Amino acid sequence: MKNIFIIPAILLLTLVSCGTKRVLAEGEVKSDLSARAIIKNHYRNATKFETLTGRIKVDYSNSDDEQGTTVSLRMKKDEVIWLSATLSLVKVMITPDRVTFYNKLDNTYFDGDFRFLNDMLGADLDFDMVQNLLLGQSIFDLNDRDFYASVYENQYQLKPEKQAELFKILLLLEPNNFKMSLQQLAQPEKRRLLNISYRDYQEVEGRVIPNTILLTATDQGEQTRINIEYRNIEFNQRVSFPYSIPDGFKPVEFE
């Protein structure tokens, strides 16, 4: 079961290997709101809290493997994302300058930073992207480019007026809360696709957060699926983030 526990720690690493050939065009109509207004509402409705606690059920599958588990989740907004499996068999801690996890199932650990992961994988990842993905916010800074707004299947759709040369992005937002419905990253030349789909949302203590997130990564026909379901979420509880790599563990080797 070791692979499934590594996945939450590097959830966004699939970004470097995913893209799309798909462009949503059929059924588009002009939006009654400007792109600027949609983006403003998206950020205005960002979930506000100091701490978050709960559990998440994670199901992972690809052509060779299928696994599932439930882990404890703790967050301190903009500072820490912490996950722990039953009996602390695996723990994950992500901060703005550190990514670390250990796995008692094979006595391995990783302790580094986003710069190391970015250098290794050629990505441009950071803490905010992981946090935003988990909270239903855009993983991209929507204020650093111009977007075209339209409506697709009763949802607001944003496309950059000028797509990046290597990656193409497409976003769908819920009309009721302006949270993300779909975040899609494309690398057409390499036949790679990442879909981050928010199937539904829940309201907890007056705050709107995802209920279920489905990540589907396709790389030249090979597909990996990660389904995340939130359970027993609470806000602004006192939390701690115990973490210590056990003695004798060996650094994990990335292929």
Question: What features would you describe in this structure?
Answer:
This protein has 255 residues and is mainly β. The chain has one domain (18-231): Lipoprotein localisation LolA/LolB/LppX (outer membrane lipoprotein receptor (LolB), chain A, Clam), CATH 2.50.20. The chain is 14% helix and 45% strand. It has helices at residues 2-9, 35-44, 114-121, 127-135, and strands at 29-30, 51-61, 66-76, 80-84, 90-95, 98-103, 108-112, 147-152, 155-160, 168-173, 180-187, 192-204, 207-219, 222-235, 250-251. Strands 1-8-9-10-11-12-13-14-2-3-4-5-6-7-15 form a 15-stranded mixed β-sheet, covered by helices on one side. Strand 4 (80-84) and strand 5 form a beta hairpin. The chain starts with a helix and ends with a strand.
How are the secondary structure elements laid out?
Blueprint: H1 2-9, E1 29-30, H2 35-44, E2 51-61, E3 66-76, E4 80-84, E5 90-95, E6 98-103, E7 108-112, H3 114-121, H4 127-135, E8 147-152, E9 155-160, E10 168-173, E11 180-187, E12 192-204, E13 207-219, E14 222-235, E15 250-251
Parallel strand pairs: 7-15
Antiparallel strand pairs: 1-8, 2-3, 2-14, 3-4, 4-5, 5-6, 6-7, 8-9, 9-10, 10-11, 11-12, 12-13, 13-14
Question: What are its keywords?
Answer:
single chain; mainly beta; 255 residues; 4 helices; disordered N terminus; 14% helix; outer membrane lipoprotein receptor (LolB), chain A; globular
First-last Cα distance: 18 Å
Largest sheet strand order: 1-8-9-10-11-12-13-14-2-3-4-5-6-7-15
Question: Briefly, what CATH class?
Answer: Mainly Beta
Q: Per the principal axes of the C-alpha atoms, what is the gross shape? A: globular
The name of the CATH topology is outer membrane lipoprotein receptor (LolB), chain A
Question: Main sheet?
Answer: 15 strands, mixed
Oligomeric state of shown chains? single chain
Strand content range:
35-45%
